[in-house]
Write a structure and sequence with these properties.
Layout lengths: L1 H25 L7 H11 L2 H6 L5 E2 L1 E3 L8 E4 L11 E4 L2 E6 L4 E5 L68 E4 L9 E11 L6 E7 L3 H4 L3 E7 L6 E4 L5 E6 L2 E2 L12 E10 L11 E18 L11 E18 L10 E10 L2 E4 L2 E17 L4 E19 L3 E16 L2 E2 L2 E15 L2 E22 L5 E19 L15 E2 L3 E14 L1
Parallel strand pairs: 1-10
Antiparallel strand pairs: 2-18, 3-4, 3-7, 5-6, 6-9, 7-8, 8-9, 10-15, 11-17, 12-13, 12-14, 14-15, 15-16, 16-20, 17-19, 18-19, 19-23, 20-21, 20-22, 23-24, 24-25, 25-26, 25-27
Length: about 525
């Protein structure tokens, strides 16, 4: 009898609930609470972006946060993205990686389990009951032999993690992992899981075998376009000659160059002075040297368009490059030696390296940036100079991909200079540059190499005439020019974008500009 009454009560409650749902769902004039109105809207929201942006999803390109570890992104092998970005943020981490074997240990936060699906793409198993459902009276306690229906707190182990993320399982074969720099992967990691080896030796994480992946596997048919400044305080500087001084400035943390020169935010400055080989037979007073500084504020440019190729596997467009502001002030003194084997003498004075992480939607993309700053002198060993130039401007180099044209180089520079000192003795020509070799890549692969060489060029000429009566005349002229040479290449590793592989390096296209700084002349009889 007791069981009969209990079943009758449950049936009655079910009937009342169904009637209530029918009334609130079908009656246009019925009164509803704010929670009632929000429920159907929240259920419909995921479908709207999928329909409006099925072809492309615009992703923000920003600097990765520095106040904590950068989240890993994982693209599920069986994910149906409907044209959206394939990857999602994940609590999984690359605990270690061996480049030679491709083996990695993937770890998850301790105590997690369950599905690794994106919590925003599917209803949570811990979703509370509909707000219209009636709550049983407090005195209607279930019998001891009954199991309560599953609810938001029925299973503590299924409680969502902070931020709404579900507890996460380890990766599966076919998943693609995008990670910021990790142990064994200082350049970051973009790799596809090809085999599950088993539990790691220390029992913490899963050992997997991987192979390099492409950006299309995590960005899908989304689009992204942005330029991110490189934090100068994160750049490792290795001086190659004595006397190199480094100063930098970033937001909220200013430093100053020599003699109290305040730097613009985001700038890195290198001051240097070095001796240069003197021409053979030159007097001691003609000892040659270079001295000055170079100041730059580098930025990484990245763009990606996953649609428009018509192939479904290659992007419609992409760009990777380096740009920024440049300023230098330097001088050349003395009678420099001639060229070596027909090539200018190059003196590297500092190597710089950084691995900035840019966040493209949920995907952390690791950019590898290397710079070698140098002096370069090309002289005939006859002319003695004391010249100085102040140069300012900007530059942009990189590789641009379109499906119709393939990869093409980009090399741009807009610089101007003014002379600070000019003294030329004797006849001859000298060209000296203070420049930088730059290499930009992704996840440890070289993509773009460029050589930016702002320079000074001095030329001096003389002529003389005479006659039998001992009379004659002599005249001389000189000119000082400023200029910039920009050269470089695109490398096959740019195929990391998922573009067709090209078989050789592609020149960026040489840029050469020169302008007159000052000139002069004299004549005698």
């Amino acid at each position: 009898m007791h069981k009969f009454k209990r079943h009758a009560l449950i049936s009655a409650l079910s009937a009342v609930t169904a009637a209530t749902l029918l009334t609130t769902g079908c009656s246009a004039g019925s009164q509803s609470t704010a929670a009632d109105k929000a429920a159907p809207t929240a259920a419909a929201e995921p479908a709207e972006p999928a329909e409006a942006g099925a072809a492309e999803e615009q992703l923000a390109v920003v600097s990765a946060a520095t106040d904590g570890p950068t989240p890993t992104a994982v693209a599920d092998a069986d994910a149906d993205t409907a044209g959206q970005v394939k990857a999602r943020k994940s609590a999984l981490k690359v605990a270690s990686y061996d480049k030679e074997s491709g083996r990695a240990v993937i770890s998850a936060p301790s105590g997690t389990s369950g599905s690794g699906s994106d919590p925003s793409s599917a209803p949570s198993e811990t979703t509370p009951a509909a707000p219209d459902a009636e709550t049983p009276d407090a005195d209607k306690t279930p019998d001891a032999d009954e199991t309560p229906a599953s609810g938001p707190t029925s299973d503590p182990e299924r409680t969502p993690e902070p931020g709404g993320a579900e507890p996460e399982a380890a990766v599966a074969v076919g998943d693609v992992i995008a990670s910021a720099p990790a142990p064994g992967a200082p350049d970051g990691l973009l790799a596809e899981v090809t085999k599950i080896v088993g539990t790691a030796a220390d029992g913490d994480g899963m050992t997997v075998e991987t192979e390099p992946a492409e950006l299309t596997s995590v960005l899908g048919e989304s689009t992204a376009d942005g330029t991110v400044p490189v934090d100068p305080s994160t750049m490792e500087v290795d001086p190659l000659v004595e006397g190199v001084k480094v100063s930098w400035a970033k937001t909220g943390d200013l430093t100053f160059g020599p003699e109290g020169a305040k730097l613009p935010l985001g700038s890195l400055r290198l001051d240097v002075g070095a001796a240069v080989e003197t021409a053979e037979g030159a007097p001691a007073s003609a000892a040659a040297s270079v001295e000055g500084f170079v100041q730059l504020a580098p930025e990484v440019s990245f763009s990606y368009s996953g649609s428009g190729s018509g192939t479904g596997s290659s992007p419609g467009g992409a760009f990777l490059g380096l740009s920024g502001d440049w300023a230098s002030q330097w001088s050349l003194k003395g009678r420099a030696a001639g060229s070596t084997d027909g090539r200018p003498i190059r003196i590297p004075f500092a190597e710089l390296h950084a691995d900035p992480v840019i966040q493209v939607g949920p995907v952390p993309i690791v950019v590898n940036l290397d710079l070698v700053c140098y002096f370069q002198v090309d002289a005939d060993g006859r002319v003695t100079v004391d010249v100085e130039q102040d140069l300012q401007g900007d530059f942009k180099v990189g590789g641009n991909f379109t499906w119709s044209k393939g990869w093409t180089g980009v090399s741009e520079s807009d610089m101007t200079g003014e002379p600070l000192k000019t003294a030329v003795t004797a006849v001859g020509e000298v060209k000296a540059a203070m420049g930088a070799e730059a290499t930009v890549g992704l996840y440890g692969t070289v993509g773009v190499t460029a050589d930016l060489a702002p320079y000074l060029r001095t030329e001096a000429a003389a002529s003389a005439e005479g006659s039998a009566d001992g009379t004659g005349s002599a005249s001389g002229s000189w000119a000082l020019y400023g200029g910039v040479d920009l050269t470089g290449t695109l490398n096959v590793q740019l195929s990391i974008f998922g573009t067709p592989l090209f078989q050789k390096r592609i020149p960026l296209g040489a840029l050469h500009e020169e302008w007159l700084l000052t000139k002069g002349g004299a004549a005698t009889s």
